[in-house]
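Supplementary Methods S3. Input chains for the assembly prediction are listed below.
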Amino acid sequence: AQSVTQPDIHITVSEGASLELRCNYSYGATPYLFWYVQSPGQGLQLLLKYFSGDTLVQGIKGFEAEFKRSQSSFNLRKPSVHWSDAAEYFCAVGLISGGYNKLIFGAGTRLAVHP
Amino acid sequence: ETGVTQSPTHLIKTRGQQVTLRCSSQSGHNTVSWYQQALGQGPQFIFQYYREEENGRGNFPPRFSGLQFPNYSSELNVNALELDDSALYLCASSLRGAEKLFFGSGTQLSVL
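Predicted structure tokens for the full assembly:
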């Protein structure tokens, strides 16, 4: 069965420090992979996605993620974190077939940023 | 701003009652999906509608039902509410088969 694991429930970093959020997935074929961000009281905003091709993908707000098939991972990175990046981050696998699209989400990683 | 609007934003119900949540899709989107996000968890897929028919369903009981209207707006209905139904309910619209979903801000449902 398809699943997504985000090993870190809560991460705290200092403003200006680098960030890496981990994501591991279980999926039988080449996955569609996504990272979403959710601010308090808000819906989900797409940061970036991977379908095929270059394994390093760039997203909005200075985020990037690298797909590593051998490790079944899709980790999210940012070189320098800003206080406004404090939010909850969700990794997801997309099941897209025959007009049907469904996302399977991890449990999320809550990011806190110290000034 | 995704253009997906949900109403109401907050709702309090008691166990055993019924609730209807509403979603207005982004203009031009013909597919609507509903997700349940319990506290401290990631969203879970409830079901998807396309052309007013259910197009896929997650592991939710039949008391969770939905509708999609000709203008592509949608409703999520939950009967016989249970305490565990307390959650944020998210609606997402998209084009059929497209990989990108546009999420609304959600309806926070509390069941007492």
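Chain B has a mean pLDDT of 93. Chain B touches chain A at residues 2, 4, 31, 33, 35, 40-45, 48, 50, 55-56, 58, 90, 92, 94, 96-101, 103-106 (CB under 8 Å).
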